[in-house]
## 1
Amino acid sequence: MKPQVISVGESLVEIMRDSPGQPLDQAGVFQGPFASGAPAIFAVAAARLGMRTGMVSGIGEDAFGTLLDRRLQQEGVDCSQVQRLPGTTTGIAFIAYQRGGEREFVFHLRQSAAGLVDESAVADSYFDEVKWLHISGSALALSPQSLALCRRALALTRKNQGRLSFDPNLRPELMPLAEAKECFAPFIEQADLLLPTVEEALAITGTEDEEEAARRLLAGKDRILALKRGGAGSTIYSRSGRVDQPGFSVVEVDPTGAGDCFNAACLYGVDAGWPMTQVARFANAAGALAVTRQGPMEGAPTVAQIEVLLQKSV
């Protein structure tokens, strides 16, 4: 069976400092490699929730590419459109955590396999049963080839009456804000589900008022806007109004991937037609569980694990 949820964009390995307060411009200890990349984390999170999920990406013919391919397939993600590109290396992100929770990145991406994918090599028929296409802004900012791939994926999704889920995932290391706003605009315009953080929503709309940012992003369309607030929870805007839901109290081990797990769980609830309050609680729980394990994908929860946390919080 062909996938119903397709994630397009970078697959990479993540190599991280083993404790906060170790900047990347100094010698120190790293741990990893971990399978990562926002679109890949989303794909694993969606697969763990039981959705029929596929990935369109590029990996190198190296050990890191083997790690990614093996991990995605073990998680049940269809990898038939993940291109193994000869003569390229797999994307890498080096990450350090500051004591205040901020992250520092050094990327090897643009000239990696993730940035050199061939959009013409993707089979049109792969999108025959697509219900949702998920795109991260980092994939749009990565390279001209990756942007072309995302545009083609969106055209094929629309051709098959699928919907678009879009996370801006602003990365100034890849693209300045002004350029990103212009690049992202056509995808924001067509999105059925928008998934920014509050800070991203304000930055993209150029306002300091959250309600005004929400109004501009909704743009009078029948769409859903889910604003992520980290540990504080989320707010969902739709034509039926605004829903605020608090987060869950958990012990944070590694915040990487929490937003991608939130995205997958939010899409799961929206696809099921749940009320927005239920969607927000479910997605908040998924994001909370994601931070309780070391590694970008390790904390991605199943439906049963989310339900346990929801029951505990009643």
Note: The first strand starts at residue 5 and ends at 8.
## 2
Amino acid sequence: MIDVNKQGEVWVFAEQHKRKLEDTSLELLSKGRELADILKVPLAAVLLGENISELCEKLGHYGADKVYLAEHPLLGHYQTSSYAKIIDGLIEKHKPQIVLYGATPCGRDLAPRIASAIKAGLTADCTDLQIGNHEIKKTGEVYGNLLLQIRPAFGGNIIATIINYDRWPQMATVREGVMPMPEPDVTRKAEVVKEAVHLSQTDLAIEILAEHMQAKKVNLKASRVIVAGGAGVGSKDNFKMIWDLAHCLGGSPGATRAAVDLGFIDRDHQVGQTGTTVRPSLYIAAGISGAIQHQAGMSGSQKIIAINNDPEAPIFNVAHYKIVGDLNTVVPMMIKAIKEKV
């Protein structure tokens, strides 16, 4: 077996905006910690920005052994060119074997630019990461300790495992919410490595005059109860039932991509492969057929109740409780029963 473990570190790009770390980066530290422990190498976070040194402590609490800190006034606002230039240089200097990014708008913009510059592979929108072996069939060579980058492919109809044994670092973006948020350990401290930053205004493609960010209307990841509707709900007016049931249970309304595309509800409520990945205590799926793209975003829920008039609907394969019936009858009955009990 060819052991390709070059003892390079496992890195997580610690995305921050306005001195607040993105949840996706903290989730990635959980998986990064697992991968680094298997490989017996340090886990490092890469943190870029302006006046952000206080975030290093939190990254240590969430599992980082080391934080590469790059601070500069021109890093105060994210821009692809400046961030890519700094991270390209850090990769060339420290030679990590794995670099992970959140599949956020920022991560999806930054990671391909870095991959192109350093001529490394990149797997987008992974839903799982593992360490394993790979055999080259033609030669019989077996490579060990590779990053197995797992993601849905061909419209979600298959799950693909992608490996990169000859062009390093191995890089991947990981979807928000697919990795569990680790519990912080306030006794952990990370080594902070301050990196020199050499940037000028010519390194920036644009000048940012003002930045406006709109918060999401709903935080599905934090909801303990989600009631989601699909195209089977039928109309935007009918979707009021989904809202009513969610509010009765103290939860949040969710939706499939089909329901969002039909205009029943806005995209902030979308659950699934192209929406938010959720793990609530209770997930109620009404009028949802259960395509694999939707299942990818909710199958980790503790309890799933599915309501569908088709007994062969795929959603029933992941449901703990199955109600075969017309949601227009079942959902009002549920709302009535909950209100009477309250």
Note: The chain has eight helices and 18 strands.
## 3
Amino acid sequence: MIPNAPSPSSAPMRIIHGPADVAEGAAWLAARDPAFAAALAVTGPLPLRRRGDGFKAVQAAIVGQQVSVAAARVINGRLRDAGLTGPRKVMWATDDDLRACGLSRQKIRYMRELAAARIDWAGLRTAPTEEVVDTLVRVPGIGRWTAEIYAMFSLGHADVFAPGDLALQESARLVFGLTERPSERALRAMAERWSPWRAVAARLLWDYYARAKAREGVI
């Protein structure tokens, strides 16, 4: 563990509101690990990547499962145009209404499950990360990765990570010079050293990964 780093259980929950918070976290990481300092020299200032919260945000995450970004954008646009971005509207809609927006049968079921879950979205804004994750993963179709991403970008939690993300795993391999991509379990253990700024570490690793792949001509 990094000396003097507060443990996730004892530290107060920090929220990332703006670029200054991201910059503070990036400086903290760079000061404590030369590998992060080198990665930050490549990426430069990191993006905020905050987004809206609530039903609509998780609905969009369900839409985006196993489809391209472009396809998800089209489907979400159709749902928005049809007024099907709230739980009651989704419950009242027919399967044909939802299918016309581009949803598969499985995603229609997931969306109805989300609408019926009666999640207290306002209450989640002040809930601890694990409570947020536990609440969301009870809904069929929402896995831990989706819940962690929601806590990170929709709620702004500074000390949450998503080790199941393949890009984060590959970026960690590159940044830390590992012989192989770390498993989800191994990366979760690694990320404990980056508390209380694990969400900023994720931003740094994602940004580094994107630049690395751009250099390779992959993206």
Note: DSSP finds 13 helices and no strands in the chain.
